[in-house]
Amino acid sequence: MGWTARRIPDQSGRTAVVTGANSGIGFVTVRELARRGARVVLACRSEQRGTEALERLVNELPEAASRTELRTLDLADLASVRSFAKELPDARVDLLINNAGVMALPFRRTADGFETQFGVNHLGHFALTGLLLDRLLAAEAPRVVAVSSFMHVLANIDIGDLNSERGYQRWTAYARSKTANLLFVHELARRTARTALVAAAAHPGYSSTSLQTGGPLMEDRRAAERIFRLGNSLVAQSAEAGALPTLYAATAPGVRGDSFTGPRLGWRGTPAPSWRAPWTRSDAASERLWVASEQLTGVSYG
What is the rounded distance in angstroms from the CA atom of residue 8 to the CA atom of residue 34? Predict the structure, then answer.
């Protein structure tokens, strides 16, 4: 039998911040961390959906009510990211799980003018991690987990066109943003190698969540929405199973920096080391992306 949530070590006294915690694998992640004693901060874009998720969490785990908190965070707006980090009361953050994401959207721009998938999936989380880095390094055994995707294999980043201004293909842009997640973890692990921080990545395989239908709903592409819903019901694993690689990377003993955990079979199964494209381990590419990300977000890690 493979690794399950029952094997999560005791998290008492640890604080976890999880982005996109109101649904899908994000909600399962906060629930299981809270079940094991962690103080959890649900970082959600929608206050209404976040409140509903918090109420659901407390209903399922009444004993965790005093250790759960909702805070608004819009990764598509750097002002919101800065406000979230400034107002977070914790002097120490033990776990930062960069889970929120969007997939295969029509071309849109964030509040700061970035292509939305790159802006939300990478730049927003890059800025958030940098703004919380001092509090992460203040923890005894901190971890940062980036939730990427096996779809990263479809495309490497284009350092000269990070915002897809020379042409936009929704799936290419998504793949590039997920490659950026892995390059970010690679560089963060390299830069913090002499500290206690572990920077790792995970992916959920093909899990049944609202992520797949977000793009079709925005454009009223009902046929595509139906196809994704059918795939979710027939092929995808549950959100509970999809959250396991993230939970493993966040809590399992011995997780190494720059590791990539996914379902054993690639698209489903218990957590196991995942194959990743060779370009996601490039020191030169990760450093170029890091420098560009600091310039675009105005967040410097020092």
Answer: 11
Percent of residues, the chain, with pLDDT higher than 70 = 90
Distance CA 97, CA 176 (A): 20
% of the chain at pLDDT higher than 90 = 86
Which of 49, 46, 67 lies closest to 58, judged by CA?
67
User: Domains along the chain?
Assistant: 11-296 (3.40.50.720)
Strands annotated E in 149-281:
198-202, 260-263, 271-273
Task: Report residue 71 as tokens.
Answer: 């805070």
Residues with a catalytic annotation lie at 174
Give the residue from 31, 6, 58 showing the smallest Cα distance to 239. 31
Q: Which residue has the tokens 């990427």?
A: 148
| pLDDT tens figures, 155-167 | 999 999 999 999 9
